[in-house]
Amino acid sequence: MVRYIIFRLLRVIAIVLVVIFILFVLLYTLPGSRVGTIPISGYGDALDDIFESLNVKDGLLTKYIRYCYNVFVHFSFKSSPDTRYRTVSLIRARTLTTVYILVCGLALTLILGVPIGVYTAIRKNRPADRLINSILMLASSIPSYSIALLILLVFCAYLKILPVIVAPRTPVSYIMPTLTVAISGMSSVARMTRAYMLEVLEQPYITALRAKGIKESSVIYRHALKNALIPIISFLRGFSAQLLCGTLVVEQFFTLPGIGMHLLGAVSTRNHDDLLGGAVVMTIILALMNIVSDVAYAVFNPQIRLKAE
Amino acid sequence: MGGVLSKAPGPTGEETRRLSSVGEPPYASSAFFIAARRLCKNKTAVIGLVVFLLICLACLLAPYLTKWNYYTLNSKTMRLRPSLEHLFGTDSMGRDVLTRMLYGGRITLRIAVLAASMAAVAGSVLGVISGYAGKRADKLVTAVLDVLDSIPIVVLALVSEAVLGWGRGNFMYAIAIAATPKFAQLVRGSVLNITGSAYIEASRALGISHFGIIFRHILRNVAPPLIVRYTISVTETMLTCTIMGYLSVGITPPTPEWGAIVHEVRGYVLTNPIMTILPCLVVSITLISFSLFGDGVRDALDPHE
Asked: What does the alpha-carbon distance between residue A184 and residue A176 come to, in Å, rounded to a whole number?
């Protein structure tokens, strides 16, 4: 298992480096980047010295390596002179905000989605299953901004239990975003769980367990769900990209100062450093989520877990 | 098409299925015939398709359906509630929201369908290459797909906008790129399955060229799962497109796009909720109707379910 995890880790790190390289090259060879518009020679020695100290003249590969070093060692995204301080400090705080929503959202998605999936699988083709399943089907086609609107409407306009405007980075400010992320993600997790549970419940070993007289709850939760979780975890890997996209919408909707706001703010000011910084952070977040799901997959899947022994 | 076909004399679905299971690979036309009949019997799928086509038609006929246009500002009609004159009300610049939705649908639906089509073509090509052209090509293509898969879609969209030019709908390519890996993985799997079978070996022994084998046998076999994937993909690209519009990535005012319109009217949610709910409802109904149709297509093409 350790070998498997190390192998996946190395692969993800290699992919992240390649992605950063692509983003770096694309954004820094663009016409319109500020440093590129200044003719480097012909400004006298003083300016040459400044350029020298800012490493403007270095080759692309040197710049890329220095950039990666700064990102991974110092978590700083300085690449051009005037934004070096701003970019670092902003990105740190904003990454945390996004990570909070992602982690809470994912946890709530699983807490809601998996039991609902199991419940509908047990009640296959009964009215309850049909009703929940069609609701889930509809919910999975509703865009997350509509869900955010509905939640805002319910909690702030009708129930009046949550304030519309809250100070950023307070616990209350995370309630509605987390709910939005969870509800828009829950339907696909629940449907997946249902499908895999049904598959597992048809296997002969479940019949054998029941014939042995083992309690139904134990059959379902200890034996069936354990096996159904493996494909669900591998489904989560593809799901993390969708979750990240949903988080951006939620940040924009509830004006949370997260990495998505940073990224979109960089677009409106055409700030390529912030754009690259935000893009790199988002790529790293996605890669980390993939690593976590890989590790979880290895832990839950005995075929991989027991290989080393 | 199914209606015309079902009246034509010929083997019934049952007979065709029996015939096709005798030995020969099923012919595309008869497989299509069976699937189309099955699809027509599925009421939810038909309703989904009809609703979706009606919405498409309304968007196509937008200039004939409304007397307003989507860009002229009017200070006298700002923030009107929904009425007979303005069914969806007007936005903060006095523009009719329904008109903007109709014109916006043209953009959203076009981007969704084009992006899914591009992804289907690119994914099929990559999938056939990696499944058919040997181990090295397979490894290369898989690595490329892994890299594409690990770039967040928003980043991809922003970068493609930055590289190709802002606000000209270039994020369509990003949506297509993001949808490509799923097609490629699907096609690759099917190709690997088929290339091992005896009749491909026989065709090769007969001296049929690689292109002949790919187009006559492999693509024909890959077609059903590919069609299912395509319908799912259109829903996904539509969703992504409206999300991009909502995040104002690649859509600049006054261009109407469904997500962008929802973004424009979201401020009314507490004061006049119906104005925000109506555009959201249109987007959701379109997505739901098409995914109902997609589910029907899947059930029609996949007899195991």
From this structure: 12
Interchain CB contacts (distance < 8 Å): A and B: 126
Look up residue B272 and give its DSSP letter: -
Structure tokens at B134: 């040997």
Instruction: Give the pLDDT confidence of B39-97 residue by residue, as tens digits.
Output: 888 888 999 999 999 999 999 998 888 888 888 787 777 777 888 888 888 888 878 88
pTM of the model: 0.84
Quote the CA–CA distance of A49 and A145 in Å, as a whole number: 50
| Cis preceding-peptide flag for B254 (omega within 30 of 0) | yes
DSSP secondary structure of B238-255: HHHHHHHHHTTSS--TT-
Collect all residues of chain B within an 8 Å Cβ-Cβ radius of residue A244. 152, 154
B287:A143 CB<8 A: yes
Tens-place pLDDT, residues A198-255: 989 888 999 999 899 888 888 888 888 888 888 888 888 888 888 888 899 999 888 8
Give me the percent of chain A exceeding a pLDDT of 70: 85
Mean pLDDT, residues A279-304 taken together: 87
Contact A141 B235 (CB under 8 A): yes
Interface membership of A181 toward B (CB under 8 Å): no
Q: Residue B13: which region, alpha, beta or left (left: phi > 0; alpha: psi -120 to 50)?
A: alpha
Q: Is B291 at the interface with chain A, CB within 8 A?
A: yes
Q: Fill in the DSSP letter of residue A171.
A: G
ipTM surpassing 0.85 = no
Kindly report the nearest CA distance between residue A245 and chain B, in angstroms.
7
Q: What is the pLDDT of residue B4?
A: 40
CA distance B78 to B89: 9
| Residues A213-221: contacts with CB under 8 Å, at least 24 apart | A220/A118, A220/A122, A221/A118
Rounded Cα–Cα distance for residues A298 and A288 (Å): 15
The whole-angstrom distance between A309's CA and the closest CA on chain B is 29
Residue B246, chain A, CB below 8 Å: the answer is yes
Residues in chain B: 305
Angle CA A109–A112–A113, to nearest 5: 70
Burial A216-229 (b: 16+ CB within 10 A, else e): eeebbeebbbebbb
The residue type of B265 is V
Cβ atoms within 10 Å of A145's Cβ, excluding its own: 27
Pair of tokens at residue A305: 């877990």
Distance in angstroms (rounded) separating the CA atoms of residues B199 and A95: 55
Cα A144 to Cα A153: distance, rounded to the nearest angstrom: 14
Coil/strand/helix, residue B19: helix
Per-residue tokens: B123: 């994914």
CA nearest B176: which of B111, B128, B227?
A: B111
Query: Using the 8-state DSSP alphabet, how is residue B151 labeled?
Result: S
**Alpha helices, H only, A124-174:** 127-140, 144-152
Chain B residues in contact with A30 (beta carbon < 8 A): 162-163
